[in-house]
């Protein structure tokens, strides 16, 4: 992939996952700068990965070819308000990973024209297993689109959405999704402990079952999830008994409602921030 100077504004969970994933795939650490107010996150990243760090967003953004906005949505207006008068964005590519802040809002915050791509990543980027949705307005050129896809492709898989509201669907299906699986794993571990396993063994059982299921799904990408489920489910057996309980409790509807709630919150945030 092309090598450009990248500055991350924000060094939290998501920026760390992307930066660590990038460096581990060979992207030169010397081309990456992370900016954040407190020393804790940025110093840890710099010490661990050899990237540059700074408390100065403006200097960090000025020297970059690519500025990745990686702060919480509610801080975006404040951060962009400081960048706008101090940084010339012409010739730069701006990438936002924020949920609930849309392109028209960035035009208002940073001015137009603005070469911006929205990315909706997820934290498994940290281990090269990320899933990112990408959206770019029509005027963003091929080289910048390719760079963005290569960047996130270095830490996982990517898909483009044609309409910006597709980003909110990506949030529901992938951005927030690791938390759904972790919640499920927490509940399983808790019950395994109640059944008599110590915490560590209960964690091992659940983690390995989840990792195994994910690996099977990945290795059989043409096979519908339903078939993989049926392969576990002996007629009249234990799995069928467990799945029946999920059905009685309307798991599919609960999942659908939860995903719709994520979309609704993203839409609400678009009005708030
Ligand atoms: N977490 C996730 O799974 C995902 C998150 N996102 C998006 O990523 C963005 C960041 O989320 P996440 O990483 O979870 O959040 P975190 O709270 O973990 O990180 C936020 C970062 O922003 C930094 N920050 C705060 N104020 C400023 C400022 N004025 N200038 C520069 N940096 C600042 C914080 O600094 P300090 O280190 O000093 O506290 C911190 O490093 C959000 O917009 C979210 O919507 C998108 C997809 C998935
Ligand atoms: O919870 C959030 O708002 C962010 C966006 C997707 C995952 N985390």
TrEMBL record:
Listed GO biological process terms = L-proline biosynthetic process
For this protein, what reaction is catalysed? L-proline + NADP(+) = (S)-1-pyrroline-5-carboxylate + NADPH + 2 H(+); L-proline + NAD(+) = (S)-1-pyrroline-5-carboxylate + NADH + 2 H(+)
Q: Which domain of life is it from?
A: Bacteria
List of residues binding NADP(+): 9-14, 70-73
Q: Name one GO molecular function term.
A: pyrroline-5-carboxylate reductase activity
Location in the cell reads:
Cytoplasm
**Entry's family note:** Belongs to the pyrroline-5-carboxylate reductase family.
Task: Please name the NCBIfam families in this protein's record.
Answer: proC
| Protein name (Swiss-Prot/TrEMBL) | Pyrroline-5-carboxylate reductase
């Amino acid at each position: 992939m092309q090598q450009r100077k990248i500055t991350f504004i924000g060094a939290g969970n998501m920026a760390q996952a992307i930066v660590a994933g990038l460096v581990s795939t060979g992207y030169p650490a010397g081309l990456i700068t992370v900016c954040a107010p407190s020393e804790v996150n940025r110093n840890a990243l710099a010490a661990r990965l050899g990237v540059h760090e700074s408390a100065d967003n403006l200097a960090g953004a000025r020297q970059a070819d690519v500025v990745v906005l990686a702060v919480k949505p509610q801080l975006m207006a404040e951060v962009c308000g400081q960048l706008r008068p101090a940084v010339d964005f012409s010739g730069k590519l701006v990438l936002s990973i924020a949920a609930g802040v849309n392109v028209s809002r960035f035009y208002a915050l940073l001015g137009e024209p603005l070469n911006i791509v929205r990315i909706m990543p997820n934290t498994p980027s940290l281990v090269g297993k990320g899933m990112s949705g990408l959206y770019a307005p029509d005027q963003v050129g091929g080289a910048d689109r390719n760079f963005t896809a290569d960047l996130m492709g270095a830490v996982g898989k990517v898909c483009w959405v044609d309409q910006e509201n597709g980003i909110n669907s990506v949030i529901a299906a992938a951005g927030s999704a690791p938390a759904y699986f972790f919640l499920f794993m927490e509940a399983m571990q808790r019950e395994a402990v109640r059944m008599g396993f110590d915490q560590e063994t209960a964690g091992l059982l659940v983690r390995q079952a989840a990792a195994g299921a994910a690996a099977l799904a990945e290795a059989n990408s043409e096979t519908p999830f339903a078939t993989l489920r049926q392969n576990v489910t002996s007629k009249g057996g234990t799995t069928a008994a467990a799945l029946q309980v999920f059905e009685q409790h309307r798991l599919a509807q609960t999942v659908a409602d939860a995903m719709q709630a994520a979309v609704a919150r993203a839409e609400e945030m678009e009005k708030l921030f």
